[in-house]
Amino acid sequence: MTPLLPLLPLLTLLAALLLVLPGLRRVVFLAGAFPAGVLAVALALGAGPDPVHLDWLLLGSAFGLDPVGRAVLGLAGVLWPLAALTSLPLLGGSHGRRYGICFLLTMSGNLGLLVSQDVAGFYCWFALMTFAACGLVLHDGSDEARRAGRVYLVLAIIGELLLLAGLFSVAAQAGNPAMAELPAVYAGLDRPALTAGLILAGFAVKMGVVPLHVWLPLAHPAAPVPASAVLSGVILKAGLVGWLRLVPTGALHQVEPGLVLAGLGLAGAYLAALAGCFQQRPKTVLAYSSVSQMGLLTLLVGLLLAGYGPPDALLAAIALFAVHHGLAKGALFLAVPVLKAGNRLAAGLTLIPALSLVGVPLTSGVLAKAVFKDAVPEALVFWVTLSSVTTGLILLRFLVLAWPRGPDRHLPEPSVLLGWSGALLASLLVPWLLADGRWLGYTLQFGSLLDGLWPLAAALALALAAARWTGRWPLLPEGDLVLPAERGVNALRRQIRRLLPLSDAEREAPRWPEERRPLAEPGLGLAVLLMLGLTLILAWLSVSG
Questions:
Q1: What is the pLDDT of residues 93-129, one digit of tens each?
Q2: Other beta carbons within 10 Å of 27
Q3: What is the pLDDT of residue 187?
Q4: CA-derived radius of gyration, the chain
Q5: The pTM is what?
Q6: Roughly how many angstroms between the first and final C-alpha of the chain, as a whole number?
Q7: Angle made by CA atoms 457, 458, 464, in degrees to the nearest 5
């Protein structure tokens, strides 16, 4: 099956191009998503270890799978088609064709980067996914969506430029190397730590590492539900795969970058969960929950880079946790319209992925807890377990906000119900298929049952105490750090205008009507130019002796 790897992203790319043509919109859309999903699962299960080389493509492309990429590819093969099925009602609206094209382009880029094994190819697919996903955030064209899209685009460009600055130094040393050659390339770099730091920072934007997480709480409420499901479940994992492929763990010979990453991850796991408890919209709460869970993955990657813990155990924990989180969080996002429809039985089933993320016994979350304990140093085991309490708090907040009120009502549209049911079933079964005997045995021990129950009990007790003794529940603005940043930019703009007053002709120039105001505001262009200059400086520092 390995020779089919280059075909995988081309299926959805071709469907996206065909979707430009009139007619058969839903047929073309599903024909692009479902065969690619089935092929992705088949390749994740059956592709061999040897890569496929296409010397005529780009600068010479290679396609293959590493252990974490294989696990995330299987996750993508399950979640993307289910999100496509849930997207069918969106294809009939005024923005339906645009949504379908952006969805398939994002899926193509995501699948392409997962199977790409050369630096240039990986970056091209990553960039396609990043910028096509902006169309999903901007789907309905509202003011909220435009603001979310603007913040997403600024941070995406910053991440891309930081990433490019790191890749310039790799290209200056070795052109377009295969992933397997990167350890030798890093060994020949004059400043490997700087190169690794730039690449780590570039992918940190995609992973939502605190404080670069602010686009997620804005993008999720603005994007449609299926887009949020793949955004949180699969697209965030692209940063994880980029870290593991482009920063070889044995090439840095120092622990500082890894420890910084691990510290940011552990801090984000707690801070994001607590910030999510003070939100008022269900999808925003789930966005902060994703930032928190990505913090735990970031902790694992940081420990791997720093050399703290057995590498095989850390990679196994990363792979299983990524699949567990992607399926559970995808099922929760796809449950939002089900909860809104108001059927109590369907709402009750939503508790399963929520309890799984907390790590309640007999759910896939207890497997994630098992692999964590097997991989991290003993000093961190308690803190990882304690994070289940804050996870329980934020998911209780989500359920309180989203739970149906009033009498039992109807079910959502069949395609929405079918997509959510598939995600729920996958979140129940798939992680167990990845577990070996040691972890299965751990889940049945009495100690593991106790470890899985006390964080939930503590979260319930804290939530009840807060509800009893708190009058008006305090709220944080969505995107937290975005609001003071925007105020600072506006204050700076006003100061510049005072120093450089407008001429009479500029004051009388016609202004854009509110409904036709362009997305790219002057501040966005200025930010891009500044980051481009910074990138060139960093690239020069990377390649100079």
A1: 778 888 999 999 999 999 999 999 988 899 999 999 9
A2: 11
A3: 79
A4: 23
A5: 0.87
A6: 44
A7: 90
CB atoms closer than 10 angstroms to residue 241: 25
Q: What is the pLDDT of residue 48?
A: 78
* Calpha distance 456→52 (Å, rounded): 47
Whether the ω angle into residue 211 lies within 30 degrees of 0, i.e. cis, is yes
Instruction: Specify which residues 118 forms β-bridges with.
Output: 178
The whole-angstrom separation of Cα 470 and Cα 198 is 44
Longest dimension (CA), the chain: 78
Half-sphere exposure of 384 (CA within 13 A, CB side): 26
Residue 237 contacts by C-beta under 8 Å, 6 or more apart in sequence? 72, 75, 322, 326
Q: Is the pLDDT of residue 528 over 60?
A: no
Give the range with max mean pLDDT: 44-58, 93-107, 439-453: 93-107
CA 452/CA 356 separation, integer angstroms: 10
Percent of the chain residues past pLDDT 70, beyond the cut: 87
Name which of 281, 226, 238 is nearest 422 in CA terms. 226
* Confidence class for position 175, pLDDT limits 50, 70, 90: confident
Sign of the Cα torsion 317, 218, 267, 531 reads positive
- For 363, the token pair is 């759910």
Residues 6+ apart with CB under 8 A from 511: none
**Residue-wise DSSP of 267-292:** HHHHHHHHHHTT-SSHHHHHHHHHHH
How far is the C-alpha of 355 from the C-alpha of 97, rounded, in Å? 37
Structure tokens at 115: 């199977």
Tell which residue, 78, 525, 480, has the closest CA to residue 274. Answer: 480
Question: Tokens at residue 494, please?
Answer: 């006003």
Q: How far apart (Å, rounded) are the C-alpha atoms in residues 121 and 149?
A: 26
User: What is the Cα–Cα distance from 4 to 163, expressed in whole angstroms?
Assistant: 29
- Read off the pLDDT of residues 375-414 as tens digits, 9 standing for 90 and up: 888 888 888 888 889 999 999 999 988 888 777 677 778 8
pLDDT tens string 492-509: 777 777 777 655 555 555
Every domain of the chain and the residues it spans? 2-469
Average pLDDT of the chain is: 83
Q: What pLDDT is recorded for position 471?
A: 65
Count CB atoms within 10 A of the CB of residue 224.
21
For residue 10, name the pLDDT band (cuts at 50, 70, 90): very high
Instruction: Give CA–CA dist 494/376, Å, rounded.
Output: 49
What is the reported pLDDT for 447? Answer: 66
Q: How far is CA 165 from CA 135, 170, 197, 484, 534, in A?
A: 26, 9, 10, 28, 9
Among residues 272, 258, 271, 273, the alpha carbon closest in space to that of 377 is found at 258
Q: Report residue 157 as tokens.
A: 């460009």
Do 315 and 72 form a contact (C-beta atoms < 8 A)? no
Contact 455, 386 (CB under 8 A): yes
pLDDT of residue 533: 53
Which residues touch 535 (CB under 8 Å, ≥6 apart)?
161, 162, 164, 165
Considering only CA atoms, which of 388, 245, 372 is closest in space to residue 317?
Answer: 372
